Amino acid sequence: MMRRLQFALGTLLALFVGIASTAQAQGTTQLPPPLNLTGTFTAGFYHAGTQNGRSVSQSSALASARFRLSGYVHHPRFLTFDVKPQVSLGRQSNETFFPDGRGVSATVTFLSGNTFPLTISYTWLGRQITTFGALDRLAGLQADTSQSALDVNWRIRFRRMPQISLNYSRYTDRYDPLEALTPQVKNDARAFSVQVDDQRWGWLFNSRFRADSSDSSLLNVFDPGQAPYRFSRRTREMLGNASRQVAPWLSVNLYAGHNNSKTELASRPFDQSFNYFHGNVGFRRGEKLTGTARAGITTNLVGFRLEQALGSPGSGLPGSGSPLLVPGRGRLTLLTFSGQVQYALTKNLRVNGQVTRDSTRAPTAGVVVSPDSSLTSGQGGLTYAHVFRRWQFQSGYSGSVGKFHYDGANPSRSIGHSGHGSASFEALRGTEITASARGSWQRTKDGFQLENREWGMGLSASRSVAAGWRIRGTYNFEKTFFDTTNIRFHSSDHGFSVTATHRRVDMTLGRQLRDGLTFQPAFGVGSVSPVQAQALVAAMPSLLLIPSSSLSSTAAISVRLVRNLSGRFLWSRNRQSFSGGLSNHYTQWEAGGSYRFRRLTFDFGYIRHEQDFGVGFFLRDRFYFRVVRDFRIF
């Protein structure tokens, strides 16, 4: 570590000498200063503690200095640099508000105004920390950490030639605990990509190749003494895109790719490899008629969904919003076709329609539990919007029909309606009122029985009163019903908030209540929304429905007493219950302030968390005080 700091300081000194000599040789050329140096000093004190079966506390005086050295050599288009070294004293904590760590980050750009600019960035940062995690045995654990990152980008942009961008990056971090509660953890990742952009024969072409790998260690928070889970991932991706404006009223967009991605978690491999080809055509006739037609194929739907969950493949694929009931294993091919059109009958009235068909196929029979499914649906509706002198009105309606096939069973037919409306009114003396309502009903019958109803409303009003005050209040209400053959779900949600604003004061008061049922899938604890429940009910017959409710309240105020003095206060409380019993009671208090005297800024604050899960009380509190000064050397 000391060798790295010595190397960094030596590099800074060499740059300073070289830039100073360059500045003398520039004479009277009209260029910005070749060297700028600024910095920030921070000093203070913090205390952080937790109680969760055992009491752990940490107090420390802290000091840190951050510098930023930026400029150029010879000319800004030849070589520019930005170097940010930093040092700190004292043991840091994730519960504090101090710029922490010691190390350096630097960015150098060579030939930025040329046809092949090169940018190199490097960061190394080390910390001595005390981790205060929530509700686990690692609370109060002291450790040394370090992170390093390297990024190299080289662009080639010759005239009348394809533009090429090459990028290489590498990242590493280490977590070395000072106690035997948990083993050492190390994570590293690297990536390489090549992107080519070109324009030929009226087409815009874009292609990319990406290769990345990562190895991570995941701690077992329930038993930190055990060896961490190993998580590794290897990805190779190639994609291409071509688009063209065929005519002023017609455009074409095509994209295809191959993704070879393998993931391994705790010695369990997952193959997310897939291929895809999609295309769409868009047209516009004047200002009234617009439309789009899409078609595509994805060879491994499950792999594509897993890749989306771990990190989007970046292909821009339109995720299917249809409730296809795909099993959790096997390779499924997805075919999708859709078309939509919109026509403006008048300036304020528009009509629209859409037709979609999605289907899945298994390449080998018996590979999955339920191999094939298809959904054909149609939707149509209209929207209306109009602005009057003091008020405006918006509304819309849509109806839908569909047919759903699943694994050769009797087809299910669906029908649905939805509508919404809102009106805003602006009266004299700064009074504004907005009211809205929405509702939907959908029913599926025959092979699969389902009925879903949702409706809600909202109301908000604001008014300017004397002495520069403005008061605003909002209220919302929503109710949901979800019925199947053997499951009935219902929930209600309503709340209100009141805010008062002034040139020197901001105040907020809010309350939200939710009461209903929570889905608990057989594979673990979790909850889903009624919209997601359609696929979940059919795919997982073992479901628990638990009565649940939650009540949350918040109050906050911020005050600017004088020009350079401000204060803040926050209180929040949340009560959750399952099956009629209190399961979680959480309260947070926070108070703090800030005062600025010339170039000095004083910050102080206190934060307290209290939580009770019914099996034990958990408390965590923090106090901090710091002084910050920014300065400019030259």
Offer a few descriptive terms:
28-stranded antiparallel beta barrel; 3 helices; mainly beta; 67% strand
Describe the protein:
The chain is mainly beta and 634 residues long. Helix content is 7%, strand content 67%. The chain has three helices and 30 strands. It has a 28-stranded antiparallel β-barrel. Strand 7 and strand 8 form a beta hairpin.
Which helices and strands, and how do they pair?
Elements: H1 2-26, E1 35-51, E2 55-73, E3 79-89, E4 92-93, E5 102-110, E6 118-131, E7 141-156, E8 163-177, E9 185-200, E10 203-218, E11 229-247, E12 250-265, E13 268-271, E14 274-285, E15 289-298, H2 301-310, E16 333-344, E17 349-361, E18 373-387, E19 391-406, E20 412-426, E21 432-446, E22 450-464, E23 470-484, E24 488-501, E25 505-521, H3 533-539, E26 543-562, E27 565-578, E28 581-597, E29 600-612, E30 617-632
Parallel strand pairs: 4-6
Antiparallel strand pairs: 1-2, 1-30, 2-3, 3-5, 5-6, 6-7, 7-8, 8-9, 9-10, 10-11, 11-12, 12-13, 12-14, 14-15, 15-16, 16-17, 17-18, 18-19, 19-20, 20-21, 21-22, 22-23, 23-24, 24-25, 25-26, 26-27, 27-28, 28-29, 29-30
